[in-house]
Amino acid sequence: MFLIFLLITVLLMSYVSIAWTCLNTPFLSFNLTAKILPVLLTIFFAAAFIIPHQVYNDISYALQISGHILLGILFLYFVTVMIAMALQLIFKLAGHPIKMPLGIFVMLAAFILAAKGAYNAFSQPTVVNITLTTDVPGTDGIKIVQVSDTHFGGTVTPSRAAKLAKQINELEPDFIFFTGDIFEYVGRYAPLFIENVKEMRAKLGKYGVPGNHEYYSGVNANMDLYRAAGITPLQNKTVQVGKINIVGVNDISASGIKPHYFEQIIRNGTVFNNNYNILLSHTPLYLEEAANNKVGLMLSGHTHNGQIWPFKYLTALRFPKINGLYTKDKTNLYVSSGTFYWGPPFRLGTFNELTLITLKEEKK
Asked: HEC profile for the chain?
């Protein structure tokens, strides 16, 4: 269903973008070739998203990367066209229609946006430092690195995973928590990604929960990848490490977890009342339920902070807690912007993020 929706969207965006450009650029015309091009682009995108999930070789990998890149460029170009169309309408209603052809200006603007978006996406994650106070003895100075939404595979290559491992190790964390959407159809590159994630070192361990994308490509297979990479999967279960309880919840949307079941999972894991409870949940929902069940820190991702403007505003309609630190009573929720990105290698108005959280014990 998602693929059908995506292809219909691609067809409509292609048609509108190509038609408007041809009609607003002096040396172009909306001829038969221009009318057929949106259909050809849609067929190409269908191939780019289906074939790499069935065939694993250099050709299918190049096809997948090309599809992701072109999808991002198409979206940015479509947004630029829509802005130009809105300006044309506003000036026309004001009695001052724009007479100059805008097609060339839109092409230039879209190129600049794509260049900026690619630069942001291919930059190393920015380290976001956060200090949180606790009242639990034995937690002072604990350093946590949150890794979320790396989407290893596609345009996020093993070499980028290797650089990330080096960046994380320089932070010398006690824990590394992986909050879902870590592997994305890694195919024959799985051994490289596994070795790179294994290189990410944490003094007290690496723990993770599945995101929705782990379910799309087979959650059991992806949890095997977690284990092979040295990540302990927490699927609706809890582990105790010193004075820390780590509660892991399966992806809320993919597992259909309702609030009452969410609370039950947490209650089963927070029985050590004198410990500091950390909840890993890919999707940033149910903060109130977490606060009702003695959770000190909830870590989530999923939203990518919208990834490409103006998706941020649309994403916020579904996930009001879209990025950053939120508080409910004594519970903190941190929503990561994503360590890398999903699909098209573009970020506009957002950035790749690596979160470093340091616990500081309150002195009584």
From this structure: CHHHHHHHHHHHHHHHHHHHHHHCCCCCCCCHHHHHHHHHHHHHHHHHHHHHHCCCCHHHHHHHHHHHHHHHHHHHHHHHHHHHHHHHHHHHHCCCCCCCCCHHHHHHHHHHHHHHHHHHHHCCCEEEEEEEEECCCCCCCCEEEEECCCCEECCECHHHHHHHHHHHHHHCCCEEEECCCCECCCHHHHHHHHHHHHCCCCCCEEEECCCHHHHHCCHHHHHHHHHHCCCEECCCEEEEECCEEEEEECCHHHHCCCHHHHHHHHHHHCCCCCCEEEEEECCCCCHHHHHCCCCCEEEECCCHHHCECCHHHHHHHHCCCCCEEEEECCEEEEECCCCCCCCCCCCECCCCEEEEEEEEECCC
